[in-house]
Amino acid sequence: MDKKYSYQPDFATSVICWSFTFMLFLLSMLLWLEITVLQPWTVITFILFMLVFALQVKLRNLELGKNVLRVNKVIKTNNVEISYSDVVAVEVKQHRLILKTKHHNYEWLMKKQEALELAQIISQNISVE
User: Fold this and answer.
1) Which are the contacts of 19, defined by CB distance < 8 A and separation ≥ 6?
2) Do the Cβ atoms of 61 and 78 come closer than 8 Å?
3) What are phi and psi of 70, to 5 degrees?
4) Can you give the chain as a three-state secondary structure string?
């Protein structure tokens, strides 16, 4: 049943992460406009921006396992596994999925339809156990 859902972290964390990411884009544009000639540094910073952008979109996903929900993050050492038995409540508000466990509360930004679908699956897994 390993299904994956894309997510972004809670709003405040997303604003911080994406602000740093777009600083790379602004740096590449600044280098291009200041020097007025396409330089290797401009291309390198733009490629770096595209790489960081792609990594942030591609690597952040929630993966449903048999007994756990895996939260895959950009930096793999920060990945989290949440056992369904630890989940206390699941809630969907707009484009946010809020998962409350015995130890921690998690909040992710997702497509509304995916958040509803994931909340329903997690709720079913909670009631089964």
Assistant:
1) none
2) no
3) -95, 130
4) CCCEEECEECHHHHHHHHHHHHHHHHHHHHHHHHHCCCCHHHHHHHHHHHHHHHHHHHHCEEEECCCEEEEECCCHHHCEEEEHHHEEEEEEECCEEEEEECCCEEEEECCHHHHHHHHHHHHHHHHHC
Model confidence over 28-44: pLDDT tens digits?
A: 888 888 877 778 888 89
pLDDT at 79: 92
The strand pairing partners of 81, in sequence order, are 70
The rounded radius of gyration (Å) of the Cα atoms in the chain is: 18
82: number of CA atoms within 13 Å, CB side?
A: 24
pTM: 0.81
Cβ-count burial of 58 within 10 angstroms (0-12 exposed, 13-18 middle, 19+ buried)?
exposed
DSSP bridge pairs for 72: 61
Q: Are 18 and 117 in contact (CB under 8 A)?
A: no
